[in-house]
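Hi there,

I know you've been waiting on this one. I reran it after we fixed the sequence typo, so this is the corrected version. Both the input and the resulting structure follow.
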Amino acid sequence: MVLSNQIIDSHCHLDFFDEERGAIIKRAEKAGIKNMLTIGTSLKTAKKIIKIAEENANIWCTIGIHPHESEKELSPENPKKLEILSNHPKVIGLGETGLDFYYNNSDKESQIRSFKHHIKVAKKTGLPIIVHSRSADKETADLLIEASNDERIRGLIHCFSASKELAESAIEIGFYISISGIVTFKGADALREVVQNIPNDRLLVETDAPYLAPDPMRGKKNEPSFITHTVDKIAALKGISSKEVAQITTNNFFKLFQKARAK
């Protein structure tokens, strides 16, 4: 168990908690969570996300449109809206964006267009993008490689559970790979193999709370304090200590999210 007060949860959804949000943040701090990054999923909730970050010194936020929302919110005005919102000092990244072809919540074309909107703003602002990819490995890799051909973009693949090929493609263009509680699941042998091969300087850790609680917390609503179980599993896979994983992922976070400031 890590108690060094240096873990950063690089991806959680604190806006999905209302009455219990304050208690969840306190439990995270007690568990050694130094900072949290709460992630935007819709322009409709962007102000709420920013307000949470404004009210908590140890929390930053991102703004973006989740692939599931891309068809409903698609607009040629979105890049400008994202750019304006990204000027806020607490907004340190764009997303989550990307492609999810597993569910049919948005058509593929809308998802691709929205993803490209985020990439455009990322290039203009220099902010990193948080990429969601499910059942779309090739398409995600192709778009990121194409986007980085003329001008390098920065970002991460969040809640990684995809193929080693997508991990390799992302790392090759300078992206980071963020690991969630899925790595602790019984059937996640393929992911554990991928984690063992991710370079330490490209590794991040997250909860994706309130989703995907790690073992031994399966069945409960996930929260940032549970991230220690994921850190412990990564440490075991890497053959290093949990404190080393915490320090490595914290250093990587600040390398990627350069707008963030360590407190």
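Quick highlight: The chain has a mean pLDDT of 95.

Best,
R. S.
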